[in-house]
Amino acid sequence: MKALRFGAILLVVLLVQTSLVAKLSIFGVRGDVVLLLPIVAGILGGSDRGAMVGFASGLAFDLLLQTPFGLSALTYCLVGYGVGLLQGGVLRSTWWIPVLSALGASAAGVVGFAVVGKVLGQDSFIDGRLPKIAIIVGVINAALVLPALRVARSALPVSVRSPRLVPR
Amino acid sequence: MALSRRTSRSRFTLVLLVLTSITVLTLDFRGSSVIRELRGAAATVFSPFRSVADTVFGPVGNAWNGTFHYDDVRRENDVLRRQLDDARAQAAAGAQATKELDDLRRASQLPVLSTIPNVSADVIAGPAHNFDHTIELSKGSDVGIREGMPVVAGGLVGQVVQVTGGRSVVKLITDPDFAVAVRLATSGETAVGHGTGDGRPVRVDGVGPQPAVVVPDHEAVQTSGYDRAIFPKDIPVGLVTKVEATANQLGQSLTVEPVADLGHLSVVQVLLWEPPR
């Protein structure tokens, strides 16, 4: 049942990404709300869930792109795991910790995607636009993470073991 | 104890997922047909949902672009008016020459680009990701579009890489994976052009060294159309804007600005021409 709900959420997020977010460029940069899924899962469910949700959402996104297949899966899975690890080390809950986590993790996800892509021969992934892309994607996801957490709490297949990062 | 077990399980999960990702990446790099079929199936399943989402989110996107890109649209409009005037003048001057060239080609039984049937299609979406170099068209296999067909808009835009019933995905010539055999208009020298990223020119490598091959400024670059080439002959690719000697001085590397305005595509033509298999 939870997997079904996750599937439905993933489908909606992919539709929002391809039909809306991809068309609303800011300074020539498109947002990446699919990357929010592993971040939210990592915050709510820890590194294990973050990695799994990152892998699943990345792989689904890869199906719709013409970039190397598996690149988003690899990057998003590492992002989810990293956010989950960070969540384990936080002692006190404040509203800005998820915001900062989303900002940092999204920027790291974009840079990670470009670096792994470069290793795989996609030389153009690392150029002068990369810092701008990382910052804008990070800021967009930071702005969206709090509402996304509220939605995800009831919908994602995460057992909220240690919700210290989640503002009440 | 429980925490340590949980941490080691997390690491195990991560390692497993990373290895799976690397396996999938390897399969893709080896050109596995399974991956291509999976992508095709996903596009077919996703397409109807996408159409609904486009209808729902369309007004939001239009409002956003109308609000934040109004100046761009005005500037683009001015440029287009100027280009239209230039094109009218050139068309008048070139019509007779084109007719004579077509007659000569027909007489010599060479294929003529203008005789290849084509289908016009709207560009309904740009790339879904910052590192993706594709556009999506409003028509697909229903009107005869197949994978591998060339897409043009004044000049070469790209190649169809994925088709469903009512949509098709085109890989742009700016994609670093995109390669095209080209010919220089004046010298007839052939070489290979490839994309270098979003908004960047095409790079043509493998041109012979000077003085054997002299490349004038704004030299026209076209598809070569050699036997078994993936594009028919004479599709305009771009104009040379920079010529550099390669590091070993054994050849020249050209920077080519695409003729097609890839940043502002709204309507394109798909040439119903399939590369030989």
Walkthrough of the structure:
The complex is a heterodimer of chains A (168) and B (277). Chain A is an all-alpha fold and 168 residues long. Chain A contains 5 helices and no strands. The longest helix of chain A has 29 residues, at 36-64. Chain A is globular. Mean pLDDT of chain A is 88; it is low at 161-168. In chain B, 37% of the residues lie in helices and 26% in strands. Chain B has 3 helices and 12 strands, in the order αααββββββββββββ. Chain B has helices at residues 2-29, 33-68, 70-107; strands at 118-125, 134-137, 150-153, 155-163, 168-172, 179-184, 190-194, 202-207, 220-223, 236-245, 252-258, 267-271. The longest helix of chain B has 38 residues, at 70-107. Chain B is globular and about 80 Å long. At the A-B interface, helix 1, helix 2, helix 3 and helix 4 of A face helix 1 and helix 2 of B.
List keywords for this structure.
heterodimer; A: 168 residues; mainly alpha; 5 helices; 68% helix; globular; B: 277 residues; alpha+beta; 6-stranded antiparallel beta barrel; 3 helices
The number of helical segments of chain B is 3
Helical content of chain A, roughly?
Answer: 55-70%
**Overall pLDDT level of chain A:** 88
How many helical stretches of chain A? 5
Give the total of beta strands of chain B. 12
End-to-end CA span of chain B: 61 Å
Output the structural class of chain A: mainly alpha
> How do the helices and strands follow one another from N- to C-terminus of chain A?
HHHHH
Task: Please state the oligomeric state of the protein chains shown.
Answer: heterodimer
Largest sheet, strands/sense/barrel of chain A: none
Short description:
The complex is a heterodimer of chains A (168) and B (277). With 168 residues, chain A is mainly alpha-helical.
